[in-house]
């Protein structure tokens, strides 16, 4: 998993990584502002991204310069291209240990939200291309949860969960080996039973 960050070039926290952000415009609501800022900073106009409000951060000492309230959003998408903004880059979340302000806390809250949502929603498929194999979906879960999963158990769970995956009737050999069935995200939003990460 990666986060879109930039290195601060002035105090406070000069030289540290910071999450991307922006200001809301007078005519915008929060979701529109989040989508605009993501498109501008990441250079992703028109790229389908699952975007949801994460949390509001507003405790008094977040910024040593002034009182700041931030509404953080979590964006999830597969294989995003490099940012078109020269100062922005995608960095692995595990490498972002010393960040500006409270941005590490915000990032870790986002990681935990993504991990939790993969347990009970079909959101894992948002990380995949429109047509994907069960092995590609399993790799998403392994990356987000940070641990290997048993291929047979995972295959059984995702293919038996009603409405999670829809077979396309096509196969691919892009994973190597014998042909694998391609699937699309099904109509289910909530998974029953959930995919527990125990």
Automatic annotation (TrEMBL):
InterPro entries the record matches: NUDIX_hydrolase-like_dom_sf (IPR015797), NUDIX_hydrolase_dom (IPR000086), WH-like_DNA-bd_sf (IPR036388), WH_DNA-bd_sf (IPR036390), WHD_NrtR (IPR054105)
Keywords, comma-separated and alphabetical: Hydrolase
Domain of life: Bacteria
Annotated Nudix hydrolase domain residues: 4-107
Molecular functions per Gene Ontology: hydrolase activity
This protein's record includes keyword Hydrolase: yes
Domain NrtR DNA-binding winged helix residues, every copy: 127-184
The UniProt record lists the keyword Hydrolase: yes
Protein name per the record: NUDIX hydrolase
């Amino acid at each position: 998993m990666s986060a879109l960050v930039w290195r601060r070039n002035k105090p406070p926290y000069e030289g540290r990584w910071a999450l991307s952000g922006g200001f809301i415009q007078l005519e915008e609501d929060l979701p529109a502002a989040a989508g605009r800022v993501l498109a501008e900073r990441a250079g992703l106009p028109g790229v389908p991204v699952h975007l949801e409000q994460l949390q509001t951060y507003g405790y008094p000492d977040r910024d040593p310069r002034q009182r700041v309230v931030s509404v953080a959003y979590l964006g999830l998408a597969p294989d995003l291209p490099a940012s078109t903004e020269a100062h922005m880059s995608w960095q692995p979340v595990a490498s972002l240990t010393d960040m500006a302000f409270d941005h590490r806390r915000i990032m870790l809250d986002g990681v935990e939200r993504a991990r939790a949502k993969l347990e009970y929603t079909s959101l894992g498929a948002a990380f995949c291309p429109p047509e994907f194999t069960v092995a590609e979906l399993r790799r998403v879960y392994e990356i987000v949860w940070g641990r290997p999963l048993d291929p047979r158990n995972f295959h059984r769970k995702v293919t038996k969960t009603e409405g999670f995956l829809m077979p396309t009737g096509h196969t691919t050999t892009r994973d190597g080996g014998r042909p694998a069935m391609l699937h699309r995200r099904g109509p289910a939003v909530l998974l029953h039973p959930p995919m527990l990460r125990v």
